[in-house]
Amino acid sequence: MVKAYRKPENSAMAESLSCFGLALKRARVAQGLSQEHLAALAGVERGFVGKIERGEANPSLTTLEKLAKALKRPLSELIYDYERTESEE
Hints:
The chain is an all-alpha fold and 89 residues long. It has a single domain (11-88), classed as 434 Repressor (Amino-terminal Domain) (Orthogonal Bundle). The protein has 5 helices and no strands. 24% of the residues are buried.
C-alpha cells in the first residue's frame, strides 16, 4: 500500500510543512470551510487535512492539486502563500 504522506525527516522539512499547513489553513478559513468540508470537496480524509495543517504530513503533489481545486484556487497561489508564510517566520 502506498502512503499518502511521509512524516518529516528533519527540522527544516518540518518547518516547511508547518508553513504550508498554515497557508492552507488560512485559505480554508478565508473561504469559511471546515476541515471536514474541504476534505470532502478534495476527496481526502478529514484527519489528513488536519495533519497537513499542523505540519505533520507531507502531502503528494496530487493531494495538493486536489486541495487547490477544492479551494477554487490555482496550486501556484497556495505555493505563493506558503512562500510568504515561510518568509514571515
